[in-house]
Protein: VOC domain-containing protein
Organism: Paeniroseomonas aquatica
Amino acid sequence: MQFNHVANRLAPEYFETVVEMLTTQLRFVILRRTERAIWLRQPGANVDLQFSRSPTPGRDADKLRSQVAFLSETPRQDLEALAAWAAAHGMEASVGAYSDREFYLDAPAAFVDFVIEAMRPELADYGVTA
């Protein structure tokens, strides 16, 4: 088997807003779309991201441990820019920190079971070659 994608859930009322944020702010391209789900890929990446619409009224209390993660030289600033974009588009979002090199963006009304993480590139230097 070969790894293909990761799937997460979004609140239906913010589904299109999150897709717009990823496509306009992070350059994701849409690969496929159905009535309930969408598959996206960021150019240069080799793993796809799928989002499904979820009417789940409650949110996962431990979702900070489930991330869609990105590498960035300026992780806090990049997430703060996404939070500002989200607010300008009617989606409340806030930035928190796991450490001084790892940060997360949560949009509680939109993200059902995950947060968006940004971390310094050296944290992903595992010394493993593919």
Q: What stands out?
A: The chain has one domain: 5-124. The longest strand covers residues 5-10.
